[in-house]
Amino acid sequence: MLNIVVQASLLLSLMTVPGTSATAPPEPASAPPPPAVALCDSYCDDRDPFLPPSAHRSRTRPTTAAAPPTVLAPICNIHCDGRDPALSAGERVAQSVPAGTRRVALHFDSTETMGWAVISGGGQGDSVWLDRSYDAGVTWEPKLGSTTTPAGYGGWRTLMHNVDDWAGLRVGLLRACVQSAGSSTIACTSWHRTTWNAWDRRTAAATALMQRYNLSTGLFDTTGWWNAANALNAIIDNARVSGMGSYRYAIARTFDLNRTAWAGNFINEYNDDVAWWGLTWIAAYDLTGDRRYLDTARIDADHIHRYWDHTCGGGIWWTSSRTYKNAIANSLYVQLNAALHNRLPGDTTYVQRAREGWRWFESSGMINSSNLVNDGLVTSTCRNNGQTPWSYNQGVPPAALTELHRATGDPAYLTRARTLANASTTSPALNPGGIVFDDGGGGDVPSFKGAFVRGLGQLNQALPDRPYTAYLKRQADTAHARDRSSSDSYDQPWAGPFQRSDAARQHSAVDLMNAAS
Question: What is the pTM of this model?
Answer without folding.
Answer: 0.91
